[in-house]
Amino acid sequence: MTDRTRFEQLLDEIDRTPWGPAEQALTAEAVALAQELGDEQLEYQARMRQTASANMGGLTDVMLNSFAWCLAHHDADPQRFPLDIDNGAADLMWQFKWMAATLRASPAFSSEQIAGVLDDMEEHYRRAGIGLSGVLTARFEDAWASGRLDEAEQLRARLETTPRDDYSHCDACGRSQAAGFFAVTDRDERAIVLVEEMLDGGFSCGEEPEHALSRVLLPYLRSGRLDDARAAHLRSYRLAKDNPDNLGIIANNIVFAAVTGNEARALSLVERHLPWLAYDPLNVDGHFAVLSAIALALDRVAAVGHGDAAVRGADAPALEPFFGATDGEWTASDLASAAFAAAERIGAQFDARDGSDWHARRLAGMRTLAAQRWDVPVRSDAFAVEAPSSDPQDADGWYDRAVALASYGSERDALAAAARVGDLPDAARRARLLGLRIGAHASLEDWTEAEALLPVRVQALRDAGWHEQADLEARRGLALYGRADVGDHAGLEQEWADSAGLPAWSRGDIALTLAALRLRVDDPAGAAELTEHAAVCFAEAGEPRLVVASSMLRAMACTALGETGQAHDLLESLLADDDLNPGQRARLLEVRARLHGGAGRLEQGAADADTAVGILTQLGATDALPDVQILAGALWEDAGVPDRAVPRYRAGIRLIDGRGADPSGAQFRLGRAMLAAGHAAEAAELLADVLQREEQSGASAASRAMTATVLARALALAEEYGQAMGAYGYAAGLHAEAGEPAERALVLTEQAKILARFGENSDARDLLEQAAELVRPTEAVGAIVEVLHNLGQAYGGERDERAFALFDEVAALAVEHEADWLVADVTDSRGRALVEFDRLDEAVAALLTAADGFAAAGDAASAGGSELVAARTLTDAGRLDDAVALYRSVLDRAVGMPAMRQVAALELGDVLEKLGRTGDAAEVRGLLDE
Fold this sequence. Notes:
Oligomer: single chain
Helix content: over 70%
Shape: globular
Number of helices: 47
Largest sheet: none
Structural class: mainly alpha
Strand content: under 5%
């Protein structure tokens, strides 16, 4: 490939790549290659693209340099370097619109320099015969940004009467800009009208609608439209959160969170976006906006009692120019003060340059805003609840805690507690603690540390008078702690065979270690037998803690053998022992929770997991807690109680973050639970982050497809249908990559449902037909039923006879798998399709059969729905008397369902009125007042 061919290929890749780091790298490569070739016309092609790319990505210095180079070459030779290279925003006069605002955003540029750029822009426009709408827009932005509001208002009015041209702002940007100006000049209603016009018209652009939505957050709040404010915030932030050039948008969203009772979310947004302060050193006005928002947000965090909360990432060296250096972590209170001071310093620089007090007034307005509050809950973040654990006060307390933590199996926590015990004069306790430490290191596979402690343990055993155990450990070493090197297992088996002369404690030790090894090599029966021996030996030795450990391992062996009932009974008997230490009780509860979950006793399992969490919290088991919190969340989610799952997942994620592990799996669960709890927009925000991390980490296509599918579902429920279609499309591609045709078919079915919602029935049908081709060869019965049923409904709506064969196929599968509700559902679909074919008697019969089926399956709501369709069908056919009976049946079924009862009463009243039964109609309509 020649260099010129590569250059053309680069331009093609640039034009097909979305704005972002990948596109920026391609653009820089194209510029460098053109320079290497020594071809300025090629370089002009690349730099024109680079100017637009840098503007979208917040690379201000790159944008200014690239634009200056292009403008100089155009002025020198307009023929070789034309204004417009026919590539979107790669138009020199369009790019001129960005220059004055870019200079205005940094106090390093003087007012005279900015005025010179504006005059140069106007001269170029006039010379090129271009209308002055773009120039007026740039002058309006300049006046507003420097606080010359009267002048800005005059320019805005002139813009309204100036004819639009090719260099006017687009419909989205123009409305957004005007809305922002109205919002800061106390014209909230006009701001809202403009943004809603933009949304209703479907107008969008590079940073729209997210910028416009952020601009009307406070107007919505001040107007009392709290639900609209919440929706605007969630959508704006979700769209803006990944582009560091969106500092102003992020600042507006941080302010919203701070003043709406979402202080925990505000802190989370601050932590996430702090690094953006160092991204573009020339976007100083963006720094001012974000610093002001941070100061307000952290003041609110302190006001609700969390001023001592650490602000993660604020101590990064790149942020020292803003906040100064600090020893340790910044607290919310201290960083609030530092942020206000930094904003004041920057604002003073702007006001000195501009000869105004605009930035000082903006900062004063932010301080005033700190005293205001609207209640608009956003369920995405919560402050950590302080754990009620307290540290032991002496060596005995730390010893007991270490034993409890080791009994649970929280090795790192046990080692940390053991380190606090100090010197133990009692040799027996010293030996036990050393054994605990060796066991913990062995479980963590830290064999070097375990090996180093072993001679000390052997000596402590001799000092305690346990010579036989000391000799045993000297012979077998770390094999007694679970090591599985060559010869270890066989050596232990020999020791067990020769153990008759050993003390009971030593025999139990060998048996328990061997039992664990046998369970590990998939010999649960052998493990169960040995645990019984171990329990007997430890009972003889007077070691109740190890008796419990043996019985617990036996329960695990029973579970592996499928004897879950016996395992459950064993756990029940163990938990009845009041002498268990807290770690043992927590472990037993966790194991029982898992057994409950496996047996479908989900709420009981969740309650056990919650109790275990409480015990581990009291023990300060920070390393063990995340997994049990996630277990509790999973059980509550599976039990259909997502509102209880959400806080447990959130607590687990906070702990996972704290130990530097990847929280993506837990966050996926949290997003799914939030979706089930009705918080679709918050779920979409979180799931988008999870998907982004999965892409960066190289997660499998199947994993990413699952995340993308749940994300798409969240977006659809949040009524972001366009984005949902895109997410479903991405998921479909990933399922294809993963070789999952049934899952891909289900995703295509979801896309078809969205298209059908908007009347795109032909496209929806095409997708469903494609899905049917994919799913039929599989054995995924659930997917086959879902796809064919939806395709049948689509055919029915188009009066296509193929619908009925599909309904027959689905019904046959439902009968085969004893899915009574599905039989009723597909019968209902058949009835509705028959209505489309004007086969009314068959339709009504099918609908009434469906109603009976739903009722038998315990679904009164669906039964009423089928009867309601049947009643309407008869009404439309003029068979009013027949319809009355069905409406009355719906009323009977709808007890406890006010919405359905009111619809049926209203429609029945109308039917009775038509029949001349006015008294009956009045009586029925009286139900509407219930």
